[in-house]
Write a structure and sequence with these properties.
The protein is α/β, with parallel strands linked by helices. It is built from 6 helices and 6 strands. Strand 3 and strand 4 form a beta hairpin. The protein binds zinc ion.
Length: 238
Amino acid sequence: MRKKLTRAQYRRKKKMKRLLILSSMVLMFVTGVCLLAGGISNVLHGSLLGPKSKPTLKVVDGFYDSLNIEEMLLTPNEYSRPETALNKVNGVVIHYTANPGTDAEANRNYFEGLKEGKTYNNGNYIYTSSNFIIGLEGNIVQCVPLNEVAYASNGRNEDTISIEVCHPDETGKFTEKTYESLVKLTAWICSNYNLKKDEIIRHYDITGKNCPKYYVENEEEWEKFKNDVFEMIEENAK
Ligand SMILES: [Zn+2]
């Protein structure tokens, strides 16, 4: 049998019900606002600022300018600058030019010269390029924009940024100035794309090719390089 409520009990019950409805409405509103804010933040970080735009360690403003990058972009062409979008950056790949004594601009011009379609002796077309080339004096030349794929790293072209490095002789060892620029440029890329130390890789780590020769043959030097990069990031972190 249903208990009959007094007028006071009835009022209290009704008040409780109203309170319950009100608090659920407030909860729904707050949830909605949070979802909306999250969505906006995702749009900002996802589309406008790039896929990994929240670096844990960010190098200070002006760091990029201090790299003095010379933009000598290749003419769009299917052999060295196919204008394929680089939608994600999961690593930075270090190469050496394997062309002792040649400088950044000469190597850049070689990539440019492929635009008409050049072939190896076996008749296959040559597809090759790099986002950056670092010269013998530490000068940095950019050949392919950061939002485009370069043809340097085989199966990892689609999700990495490539750096070709010039070297004076057959050992493949970089000059001091070249090394300094390489550390700085790699630090900027890692910071900007929120890459971890093990996302700095050698061409060798992808295909087993002896590239960059000096760092394939001197494993400790390769570890030292990666440590120097992260030391620089920490020193410059805000
Ligand atoms: Zn290579």
